[in-house]
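Incident review: delayed structure delivery

Summary: a single-chain prediction request sat in the queue longer than the usual turnaround. Root cause was a stuck worker, restarted by the on-call engineer. No data loss occurred. The affected request and its eventual output are reproduced below so the record is complete for anyone auditing the incident later.

Affected input:
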Amino acid sequence: MHREVLDRDHIDVDVDGQRVSVKRGLRGGQVVNVQPELRDAQAAAKALDRPLHQVLDAARAAAQVETGQSSPEAFGDDSTTHTSHTHRKLRPTI
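Output delivered after worker restart:
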């Protein structure tokens, strides 16, 4: 089985005034996956008195807008705004 290693970066998104960092997986310079950082989303949910799943969904949607994608399908099954970019390659776990 071959496992592809995606380039990754992080962007910061705004969810109702709360910063949530979002990891993005890139293939050929195109965003193929986004995932909000759980600790940031949990802190935002607590500060906003909102359920965690709502904050995660809002962060994915904000990342979609930042990335210029119009639908969650563009990212497979996950998606979610932006400020910093740090590219690094991850190694597959064995």
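Verification: The longest strand covers residues 18-27.
Action items: add queue-age alerting; document worker restart procedure.
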